[in-house]
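User: I've been trying to design a sequence by hand for this structure and keep getting stuck. Would you show me what you'd pick, starting by listing the structure so we're on the same page?

Assistant: Good idea, let's start from the same input. This is the structure you sent:
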């Protein structure tokens, strides 16, 4: 094995997408932003398409362009960009990539790109239904719809979609969900009155895809669920796709009373064996998981001993017989009783999204 490696089960990605697709009559966009949530942009994208994803989504335009360059031909949507990326927008329009538009300046940028390339821009108008993040504020929505209708009439753009994003879909039944759906429906009605009737209406993220069929509309956009991690409690038959592990870099026997790692926040209480794991916060291992992060060695669970350092951390394995190079598993699918990404999230006080997406480039990706 490599010194450190994230083993990605692409079959699990394919199976997860197929399972998600079987649960809806809507089209499915697999979100592969952030390098496929840390699993690898192109490998994850190909596996998702193999599972039946008819669309792929990225946050940034560069990743969508990389998918096109990598031979991905399914429709793509990218949604996070700034005024300084006008040249990239032009490249995206030329590549047939759908672009999200939340404001007049963005619509103007896409229409300019369409004129420059001679290619009609494909846009998805985004309405802010209550997340207060990206998206057009409802007060400004009629103006954006009117401008989009004019651009459509001029042959400069095609409004492929109208969309939004939930703030609280991971808490089924939360009152914000119904409020956001009401705002979304009002926005769709306003668009229709303005002559803008999109092919696709979409708002459902992973949580809504799994728990809220009424929000599926024409397209669902699962992200974290594609990789086998559920944002809501319950067994949905998903399989976690990533296993993070490393070979032991050092193994030594020490006496009782030895301080371990910076600050000696862990002190051995007996003669014991310490194993050095060559992963640290520079690789995405949360420093907040010091003295708390779980690992598995030879089928047994242990906990990080002391602080997580930039490149390494220590595990106290007691009297377990361990040799340099033996595998230390930080997380996997948990089916053998080993730790999961959720266990690490709990140890660090975060979410499993962050655990998998922050695994850094020094960690080799191995695909199975």
């Amino acid at each position: 094995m490599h010194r450190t490696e994230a083993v990605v089960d692409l079959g699990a990605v394919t199976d997860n997408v197929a399972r998600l697709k079987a649960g809806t009559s809507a089209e499915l966009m697999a979100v592969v932003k952030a390098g496929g949530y840390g699993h690898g942009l192109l490998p994850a994208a190909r596996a998702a398409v193999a599972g039946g994803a008819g669309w792929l989504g990225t946050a940034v335009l560069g990743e969508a362009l990389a998918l096109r360059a990598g031979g991905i031909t399914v429709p793509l949507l990218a949604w996070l960009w700034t005024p300084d990326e006008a040249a990239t927008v032009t490249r995206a329009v030329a590549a047939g990539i759908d672009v999200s538009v939340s404001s007049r300046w963005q619509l103007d940028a896409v229409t300019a790109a369409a004129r420059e390339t001679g290619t009609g821009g494909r846009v998805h108008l985004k309405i802010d239904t209550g997340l207060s993040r990206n998206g057009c504020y409802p007060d400004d929505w009629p103006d954006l719809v009117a401008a989009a209708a004019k651009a459509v009439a001029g042959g400069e753009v095609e409004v492929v979609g109208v969309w939004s994003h939930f703030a609280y879909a991971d808490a089924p039944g939360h009152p914000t969900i119904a409020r956001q759906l009401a705002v979304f429906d009002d926005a769709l009605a306003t668009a229709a009155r303005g002559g803008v009737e999109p092919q696709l209406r979409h708002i459902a993220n992973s949580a809504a895809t799994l728990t809220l069929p009424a929000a599926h509309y024409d397209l669902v956009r699962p992200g974290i669920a594609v990789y086998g991690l559920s944002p809501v409690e319950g067994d949905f038959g998903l399989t976690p796709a990533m296993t993070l592990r490393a070979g032991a870099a050092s193994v030594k026997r020490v006496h009782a009373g030895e301080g371990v790692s910076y600050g000696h926040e862990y002190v051995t209480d007996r003669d014991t064996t310490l194993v050095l794991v060559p992963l640290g916060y520079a690789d995405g291992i949360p420093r907040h998981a010091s003295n708390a992060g779980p690992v598995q060695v030879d089928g047994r669970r242990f906990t990080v001993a002391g602080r997580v350092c930039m490149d390494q951390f220590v595990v106290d394995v007691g009297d377990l017989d361990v040799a340099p190079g033996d595998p230390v598993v930080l997380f996997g699918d948990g089916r053998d009783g080993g730790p999961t990404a959720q266990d690490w999230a709990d140890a660090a006080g975060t979410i499993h999204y962050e655990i998998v997406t922050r695994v850094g480039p020094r960690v080799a990706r191995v695909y199975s």
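That's my pick for every position. To get oriented when you compare it with your attempt: The chain is about 30% helix and 25% strand. Residues 186 and 218 are 16 Å apart (CA to CA).
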